[in-house]
Design goal:
Elements (H helix, E strand, L loop, with lengths): L1 H8 L10 H12 L5 E5 L5 H8 L3 E6 L2 H13 L5 E4 L12 E6 L8 H14 E13 L9 E4 L2 E3 L9 E5 L1 H7 L5 E10 L5 E10 L1
Parallel strand pairs: 1-2, 1-4, 2-3, 4-5, 5-8
Antiparallel strand pairs: 5-10, 6-7, 7-8, 9-10
Bound molecules: S-adenosylmethionine.
Length: 211
C-alpha cells in the first residue's frame, strides 16, 4: 500500500498519545479480569499498540505499511517494550482461529469498499475467542467528508485532496453496522462527534461488541 506508506512517512497519524478510546478499553479489559492477548488491527505508527504493551497486555499489531510498522518497532524499542508485529492485510489475518481475547480496529476498516469491510469483520470474528471483545470505529454519514471526492459505490468515496488523497472512505449508518456485526453477541454503538483542530466536523460510530 504505497499510499499509506507515504501518508505515514509524512507523519500523519504520528501522534504518540493513545486514543482515549484505547485508554478506556484497557481499563474495561482489566476490570473484566481478562488476561488479555490483544490485536491492534491496522496499528499504523503504533500509538495504541505501544500503549497496550506498556499496560502489560500481550500486544500484537498488524499493518500493511512498512513505514508504520518501522515506527511502531522503533517506539517499542525506545521504551523497552515487547509486542508482536506482523506485516499483513486486514482481509487475511495470519492468526489461528480464536487466538485473541480482544481486537482493536480503529480508524482503519472504513478505508475500503463494503465488501472488503465484510471480509475484515469475518476475519476479526474468526480470530476472536468466544466472549472475546472488539472495539472498532466506522465513519458516519454526518461526517464533513461524506460525499466528497469520487463516488466508487454507494456511500464510498475516494478523496481527491488532503492527506488521504487516493484513499477510499466508506460511511455507515447504524443499521448497516448492526448488519455487519450480526454474528457478534452484544454490541454497543454510539456516535463520537467533534470539531477537529482544523475546524472540520468529525463524526464516527464507536462500537464495542462481544463474540
Ligand atoms: C488512519 S491510520 C490509523 C492507524 C492506527 N489505527 C491509529 O489509530 O493510529 C490507518 C492504518 O490502516 C492501515 N491499513 C489500511 N488498509 C489496510 C489493509 N488493507 N491491511 C492492513 N492495514 C491497512 C494503514 O496502513 C494505516 O496504518
Amino acid at each position: 500500500m504505497i499510499e499509506w506508506n507515504q501518508i505515514l512517512r509524512e507523519e500523519w497519524y504520528s501522534s504518540e498519545k493513545p486514543d482515549e478510546l484505547v485508554v478506556n478499553f484497557a481499563t474495561s479489559l482489566r476490570k473484566q479480569n481478562k488476561k488479555t492477548r490483544v490485536l491492534d488491527l491496522g496499528c499504523g505508527a503504533g500509538r495504541n499498540l505501544v500503549y497496550m504493551a506498556s499496560q502489560g497486555f500481550e500486544a500484537h499489531g498488524l499493518d500493511t505499511s512498512e513505514t508504520g510498522l518501522n515506527s511502531t518497532k522503533e517506539r517499542l524499542r525506545k521504551r523497552d517494550l515487547k509486542a508482536y508485529i506482523a506485516k499483513g492485510d486486514v482481509h487475511l489475518l495470519p492468526y489461528r482461529d480464536t487466538y485473541f481475547d480482544a481486537v482493536m480496529c480503529l480508524f482503519v476498516i472504513y478505508h475500503q469498499k463494503l465488501a472488503g469491510i465484510q471480509v475484515t469483520i469475518s476475519e476479526i470474528h474468526r480470530v476472536l475467542r468466544k466472549r472475546g471483545v472488539l472495539i472498532i470505529n466506522f465513519q458516519s454519514k454526518q461526517s464533513h467528508m461524506y460525499g466528497k471526492g469520487t463516488k466508487v459505490e454507494r456511500d464510498t468515496f475516494i478523496q481527491q485532496a488532503g492527506p488521504e488523497k487516493g484513499i477510499p472512505h466508506h460511511f455507515s449508518d447504524k443499521q448497516e453496522i448492526t448488519r455487519l456485526l450480526k454474528d457478534f453477541q452484544t454490541t454497543n454503538v454510539k456516535l463520537r462527534e467533534r470539531k477537529s483542530d482544523d475546524g472540520y466536523f468529525e463524526s464516527r460510530w464507536i462500537v464495542t461488541a462481544t463474540t
